[in-house]
Design goal:
Length: 83
């Protein structure tokens, strides 16, 4: 089993009750937030895109908003702390 599939399976098991389409948005968002550091650790390009698409498909989410959530997290990590 690929590592990305394992990580997604575990996040879904911990946070999402029921199949992707039936799960509530809050639970899906928890899974996305748990997996975001792993998505960001994937090399930009095909590897990251494939991870995002797989995650979106498994959680029954649109890829666009999922990518925006990941990008927001990336900006928070990259932003210097405010004094």
């Amino acid at each position: 089993m690929p590592l990305t599939e394992y990580l997604i399976d575990e996040a879904i098991r911990r946070h999402v009750a029921g199949p992707g389409p039936q799960a509530c948005v809050e639970h899906k968002l928890r899974a996305v937030r748990e997996l975001t550091p792993f998505v960001l650790a994937a090399p930009a390009g095909l590897a990251r895109s494939t991870f995002e698409k797989t995650l979106a498909r498994r959680l029954d989410l649109d890829i666009g908003p999922l990518r925006l959530e990941v990008q927001r997290s990336e900006r928070r990590v990259a932003a210097p702390p405010t004094p």
